[in-house]
Backbone:
């Protein structure tokens, strides 16, 4: 069997140089075409790494250097002339590469790291690590796999590294790297919460579709990006340095961990049919990201509360904040929720972002949509059934399996919803997903017995710089940087009516030099002063001018609260799920 060999040398990873050597079986005497991945499933866009490849050299198995040309109409494609006497092309480069039409060829990967580093990945080890003769580095080899699984299996590695079992069966493993010595400990309390996360996800989503699952977490003091990427039997995520050790920080970030774990069911095992990557070059159809990301976003908070990763109070506060965020996405007037996924790959310029609706609304609006669905099912069945019945059947599929892919269509979603609670789900989704809507979908919040509204003063947790910035956005409708430059202007809001626009800068507030605090206090002061508009001095390039904004509503902070006399369905949704999944069949 012909196998592709990939050797990755991470010994210079700290310098952002990843050296890779790939041996590619080819036919002699032909033009071989190698393509780097273009469409990345987890990013939902054409964001492949071709621009990050450096030092690329091709040679034959006899050592002959081979010339390459780039396809002038496809920058991700390299063409190489293979000589008569060659059956292998060796590509050496810095960064990562993969190929079209290699789904059936086995790939054997190896990675070299400094010998003191820990390494974790969902890929299976092949033998024990081999240490170099000088003891400086070690090389780990992995069992041959296919290109999809290789692309879906990141490696977590680092000097400060620890590994913890999450569940007693050893199937769920937490691996942690940190950039500051002394922070690799994870409290028992956190491990118990993660163990409950596993149990509660099984309870809501049914049987698992992996053999083992790796939580790959990088904790950092130095970089500010906290986020994650899903994979079938692992996920990679970055959290603040104390993200696992400080319960109040975990309260903020636990939902990210839950979100990426849920994706093993919703996004990996079951994917929209158009979102299954065939070759990393064919565009992905994002039109059902309101399920893939929207449903995962709905459950990330619920399962976090059920497993103790997040407090109910943080859940309600976050729901209010995200609802306000959707309230500010004025592009819903012309662009449907579905289209925010279909067009997910469009450039994400921040200028007039709310009006062009390029902020991936399928995440937050997905929360409101699925809360609407969940409360409707509960209401129609007198509380006997819930969205959990849909997710358990749809994503569990009745039995544990290994990492397989079962695609679905919109018809499948409607049919499964109808089995849980009969309704005209086509009409429901046509109105709330497929067509534009002038209104924020508050139906789920209200049916759950709650009310969404804005208050004039911050509640606990909102009296921060970020909370104030959001309150400015929710009042006069501008997102403004610390230097006064406008990043976005809310279409139809008071600032838009005063003809403000992105890239203009506020330089003075009522005659005083601009600061974010000055702007906020001016908005507050005009609440009492109904006769005088706010006065801002604006600048764009060499022009300066005064604007008057006739707004007296004060800063606005989003809240949700339970309505007296209404059944508190939200608390029922957040209650721990006791039903155990019915696990049948083999466990692989
Ligand atoms: Zn996601």
Residues:
């Amino acid at each position: 069997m012909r196998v592709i060999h990939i050797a990755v040398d991470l010994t210079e990873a700290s310098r952002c140089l990843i050296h890779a050597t790939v041996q590619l079986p080819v036919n002699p005497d032909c033009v071989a075409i190698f393509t780097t991945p273009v469409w990345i499933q987890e990013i939902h866009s054409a964001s492949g790494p071709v621009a990050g490849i450096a030092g690329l050299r091709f040679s034959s198995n006899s050592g002959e250097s081979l010339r390459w040309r780039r396809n002038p109409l496809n920058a991700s494609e390299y063409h190489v002339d293979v000589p008569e006497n060659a059956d292998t092309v060796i590509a050496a480069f810095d960064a990562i590469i993969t190929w079209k039409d290699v789904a059936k060829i086995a790939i054997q990967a190896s990675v070299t790291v400094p010998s003191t580093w820990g390494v974790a990945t969902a890929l299976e080890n092949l033998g024990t690590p081999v240490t170099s003769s000088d003891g400086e580095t070690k090389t780990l080899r992995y069992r041959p796999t296919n290109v999809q699984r290789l692309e879906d299996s990141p490696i977590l590695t680092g000097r400060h590294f620890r590994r913890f079992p999450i569940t007693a069966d050893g199937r769920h493993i937490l691996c942690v790297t940190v950039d500051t010595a002394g922070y690799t400990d994870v409290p028992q309390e956190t491990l118990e919460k993660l163990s409950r996360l596993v149990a509660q996800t099984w309870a809501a989503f049914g049987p698992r579709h992996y053999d083992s699952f790796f939580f790959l977490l990088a904790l950092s003091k130095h970089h500010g990006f906290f986020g994650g990427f899903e994979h079938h039997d692992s996920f990679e995520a970055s959290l603040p340095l104390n993200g696992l050790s400080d319960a109040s920080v975990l309260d903020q970030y636990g939902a990210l961990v839950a979100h990426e774990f849920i994706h093993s069911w919703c996004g990996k095992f079951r994917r929209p049919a158009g979102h299954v990557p065939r070759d990393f070059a064919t565009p992905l159809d994002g039109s059902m990201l309101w399920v893939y990301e929207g449903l995962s976003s709905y459950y990330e908070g619920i399962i976090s509360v059920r497993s103790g990763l997040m407090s109910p109070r943080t859940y309600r506060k976050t729901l209010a904040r995200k609802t306000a965020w959707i309230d500010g996405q004025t592009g819903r007037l012309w662009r449907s929720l579905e289209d925010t996924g279909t067009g997910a790959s469009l450039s994400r310029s921040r200028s007039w972002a709310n009006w062009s609706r390029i902020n991936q609304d399928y995440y937050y609006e997905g929360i409101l949509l699925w809360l609407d669905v969940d409360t409707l099912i509960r209401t129609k069945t007198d509380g006997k059934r819930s969205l959990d019945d849909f997710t358990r059947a749809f994503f569990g599929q009745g039995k544990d399996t290994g990492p397989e892919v079962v695609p679905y269509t919109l018809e499948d979603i409607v049919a499964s919803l109808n089995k849980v609670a009969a309704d005209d789900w086509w009409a429901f989704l046509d109105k709330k997903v497929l067509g534009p809507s002038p209104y924020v979908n508050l139906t789920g919040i209200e049916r759950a017995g709650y009310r969404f509204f804005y208050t004039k003063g911050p509640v606990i947790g909102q009296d921060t710089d970020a909370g104030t910035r959001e309150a400015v956005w929710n009042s006069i409708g501008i997102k403004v940087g610390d230097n006064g430059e406008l990043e976005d202007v809310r279409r139809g809001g008071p600032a838009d009516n005063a003809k403000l626009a992105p890239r203009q800068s506020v330089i003075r507030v009522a005659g005083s030099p601009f600061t974010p605090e000055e702007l906020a206090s001016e908005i507050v002061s005009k609440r009492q002063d109904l006769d005088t508009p706010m006065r801002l001095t604006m600048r764009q390039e060499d022009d300066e001018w005064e604007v008057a904004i006739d707004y007296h509503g004060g800063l606005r902070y989003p809240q949700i609260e339970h309505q007296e006399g209404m059944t508190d369905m939200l608390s029922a949704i957040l209650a721990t799920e006791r039903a155990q999944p019915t696990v049948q069949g083999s466990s692989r």
The domain at 465-555 is CATH 2.30.42.10 (Pdz3 Domain). The CA atoms of residues 248 and 310 lie 9 Å apart. Residues 96-101, 581-588 have pLDDT under 50 and may be disordered. The radius of gyration is 26 Å.
